[in-house]
Amino acid sequence: MVWDWKKTAEDARQKLxxxxxxxxxxxxxxxxxSRDVNTVRRxxxxxxxxxxxxxxxxxxxxxxxxxxxxxxxxxxxWWSIDPAGAVVGLEKWKNGGLTTRSLAESMRKSxxxxxxxxxxxxxxxxxxxxxxxxxxxxxxxVLGTKITPSENKRSAQLLPVDFRYSFKDSFRGDVQVxxxxxxxxxxxxxxxxxxxxxxxxxxxxxxxxxxVFVALPSQSAVxxxxxxxxxxxxxSGSTPIKHLLLGPPADPLSRLRILVVQ
Length: 262
What we know:
Blueprint: H1 5-18, H2 24-32, H3 37-56, H4 58-64, H5 69-81, H6 83-94, H7 103-110, H8 125-143, E1 148-149, E2 163-169, E3 173-181, H9 189-193, H10 195-205, E4 211-216, H11 219-236, E5 256-260
Parallel strand pairs: 3-4, 4-5
Antiparallel strand pairs: 1-2, 2-3
């Protein structure tokens, strides 16, 4: 029987939406049946990608929406590193110019050159150019105010963040905002494996910034990072503060925010 991966992914999303703290893994397992949890998690990420594609590129969505899971997952990765190349690749695949087996190789060949900055922790410049306006828009949506990019020349004297912003606040004056981008990783399971490292880094940055935003590529990855914050609140006995009317909360965990960068 052919696996209806979209039905499994949609079922998993619904279960995740109502899952309580500590039960997300069980929700994925229940939705997946005989499928392993990581495969279900990847299916959710692929369905998230299709949903975004439907809004941003309807023609490509129409061409791809009924494709097998492996094909959609490959194009999801391709789109994340080279959207223009992915559009061309999808057209070739639709017309028979690419086989399912040759997709991954074509994706690797079409990848744009990545120029690394001197510091190993820097994002590839091509990725930075893509995500910065999306991160800025996401932060402005969460905070409800316009923000201004700050100087972010990396040196031994500066904290390791990917983007710095600031804005004026009637309660605190100059408010400093940091954003870090997780990855990017081609292997989606690494986002989960590395969540402790990234979130501990983000929590440490709250001692130097009023707000710290952690940017992730999909909703399926967000769940693990949000769960990390919830567990940290539970273990520390702190109460999450969600309202922003009085400026940044004193509680460091409440000054952490997760963003999805699409």
